[in-house]
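Hi V.,

Quick status before I head out on leave. The structure for the redesign project is tokenized and pasted below; the design run finished overnight.
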């Protein structure tokens, strides 16, 4: 192995500094592009770069220690030369003072005295000088992206939408018909059919919230400002999810009461299938395409097994689709109360009437200006028009804990033993 040299150490340190600069430029480019979170590919690339940087820094420290160990202190530079001593720097090696190389240093006379005591088998004590460190005084490094809560998916993304030009929407319902068509004889009166119409008006609701940030925090930390305003919008969407479930609970919807305490593992799936059939045979001839459940209820249903311990939702949960019930996609949200569910035909129930989409505005309120506070306002105006209530079915008394009834099958095997004489 070649002797470590300061020149080689300088090359390694230059590589380390170049890689460190690459990491800093990588984050700076994303920040200038207003990227709030790294993509999966960028995150993998950044972790690889930081891992290489950590390895290179460790190698640099080890090599620097090897260089230090290869240099003799001035008072030992004469060893192996036949001389009693040389001034520091007069030999081939450019020696540095031992206090710069070794964290622990003892004087030559102190070492000689200790050596003599050891030869005479006398006790000796070597005392070291106190060391200094500045590491506890250094401030911690701040991670560039703050941590905020996680939110549910948006239910409105699964519904049809309609843009309003007015603060309310009027629509006509024909939910029932008086009379029926029939076979008539020649020259006789035809049966009369009367359409029973109803005029309804849906008024939009405003969902809003405000957030105040100091001007200093906005100027000093762009990532926090972007994350805070995004959090404000997500909170509005959370309330929107809750309002959509409230708007679904309107007059004329279908209902189904599930068996609260299943007597067999398949009872809950039987209830869901009966609800699907009730939608299809109802006045709207609805075909279920979305089932909204709370995470607790769906977990209880999904963990149900048959008498042989096999999951009912999928034969192999590691490979099969486990977020469907009878082919109907399941949407989990904490906005849905435990033990309840909403079975929908999103193509027939109606539409989400939107007067004002989710918007973010900036302004002042009260003493905000003199207090150096900039206020963000996030709001939207919308309403769900349930035009065909029979395309909505409300399921109640769903389980929130799973009770699996295990069936034990006992097999008796008869063994015949033959005895040879």
């Amino acid at each position: 192995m070649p002797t470590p040299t300061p020149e080689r150490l300088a090359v390694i340190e230059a590589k380390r500094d170049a890689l460190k600069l690459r990491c800093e430029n990588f984050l700076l480019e994303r920040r200038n592009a207003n990227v709030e979170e790294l993509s999966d590919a960028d995150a993998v690339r950044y972790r690889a770069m930081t891992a290489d940087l950590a390895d290179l820094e460790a190698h640099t420290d080890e090599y620097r220690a090897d260089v230090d160990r290869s240099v003799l202190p001035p008072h030992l530079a004469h060893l192996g030369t036949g001389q009693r001593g040389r001034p520091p720097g007069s030999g081939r090696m450019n020696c540095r003072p031992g206090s710069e190389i070794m964290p622990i240093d003892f004087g030559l006379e102190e070492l000689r005295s200790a050596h003599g005591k050891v030869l005479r088998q006398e006790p000796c004590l070597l005392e070291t000088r106190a060391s200094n460190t500045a590491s506890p005084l250094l401030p911690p490094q701040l991670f560039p992206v703050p941590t905020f809560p996680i939110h549910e998916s948006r239910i409105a993304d699964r519904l049809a939408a309609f843009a309003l030009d007015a603060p309310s929407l009027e629509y006509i319902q024909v939910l029932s018909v008086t009379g029926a068509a029939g076979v008539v004889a020649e020259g006789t009166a035809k049966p009369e059919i009367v359409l029973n119409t109803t005029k309804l008006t849906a008024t939009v609701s405003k969902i809003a919230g405000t957030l105040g940030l100091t001007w200093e925090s906005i100027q000093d930390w762009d990532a926090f400002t972007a994350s805070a305003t995004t959090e404000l919008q997500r909170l509005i969407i959370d309330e929107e999810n809750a309002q959509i479930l409230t708007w679904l609970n309107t007059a004329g919807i279908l209902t189904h009461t599930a068996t609260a305490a299943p007597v067999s593992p398949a009872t809950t799936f039987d209830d869901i299938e009966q609800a699907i059939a009730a939608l299809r045979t109802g006045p709207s001839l609805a075909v279920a395409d979305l089932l909204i459940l709370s995470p607790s209820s769906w977990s209880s249903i999904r963990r149900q097994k048959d008498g042989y311990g096999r999951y009912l939702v999928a034969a192999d949960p590691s490979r099969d689709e486990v977020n469907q019930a009878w082919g109907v996609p399941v949407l989990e949200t904490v906005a849905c109360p435990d033990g309840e569910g909403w079975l929908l035909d999103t193509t027939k129930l109606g539409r989400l009437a939107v007067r004002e989409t989710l918007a973010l505005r900036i302004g002042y309120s009260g003493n905000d200006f003199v207090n150096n506070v900039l206020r963000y306002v996030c709001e939207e105006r919308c309403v769900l028009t349930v035009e065909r209530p029979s395309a909505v079915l409300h399921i109640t008394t769903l389980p929130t804990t799973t009770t699996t009834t295990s069936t034990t099958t006992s097999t008796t095997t008869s063994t015949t033993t033959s005895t040879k004489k």
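Above is the designed sequence. Residues 79-93, 98-103, 403-421 have pLDDT under 50 and may be disordered.

G. will cover questions while I'm gone.

Best,
W.
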